[in-house]
Amino acid sequence: MGKNITSQKRGKGSIYKAPSFRYVGEVKHPALAEMTGKVTDIVHSQGHSAPIAKINYNGNHLLGIAPYGMRVGDEVSAGQNAPLKDGNTLPLSKIPEGALIFNIESLPGDGGKFVRTTGGFARVLSKERMEVKVMLPSKKERSFHPQCRATIGVIAGGGRTEKPFMKAGEMSKKRAARGKLYPHTSAQSMNAVAHPFGGSSTNKGRPTIARKHAPPGAKVGMIRPRQSGRGKGRKQ
Hints:
The protein has two helices and twelve strands, in the order αββββββββββαββ. The chain has helices at about 5-10, 170-175, and strands at about 35-45, 50-55, 60-65, 75-80, 90, 100, 120-125, 130-135, 140-145, 150, 210, 220-225.
């Protein structure tokens, strides 16, 4: 019997669509040019966890992620010759080793893809002619093209995840702002028609391995693990 589970309902026209029309706009680095601007305002966007800075670059109003310590009226620069100051955007080849950075481009000119959440920062480890090694917040090291740009500093709003949600209504509003489903129901607590794990015929806590050629709606549980169970007879 086919089961249309929640992960299959997400799509165009569903209730899970993110309300992007209420976001302040696209947040990315300015165009590939030498630019100097002034911070005109710092705002909140429900589509971003970090504070968003409105920057006026000679009449061009762009949005950027606000670093810790940024204020309205501060001057920020972007380009090859920008000074080494928090909030300025430079290519990785121009940023010294050991500097803290955020909003790193995956490819030169894409506007920034890595390290964009509150309190986040990465660190430049080493620089070579064809690559720059950066340690991400997950402690994973990744190599970037030397012309990929990044902003110097630490993203503002650190400690956001440490504040507890005292009421379920607060969590519900937070999830609704991003178009996420809340509350979450355990798959094994559902009816058999709602999920492959539902119904009284399943036992809670047993390992459930998706079959190799399962369709997307049935790819749930332990997705083809290399091993499962208690490991009887294995070498300790």
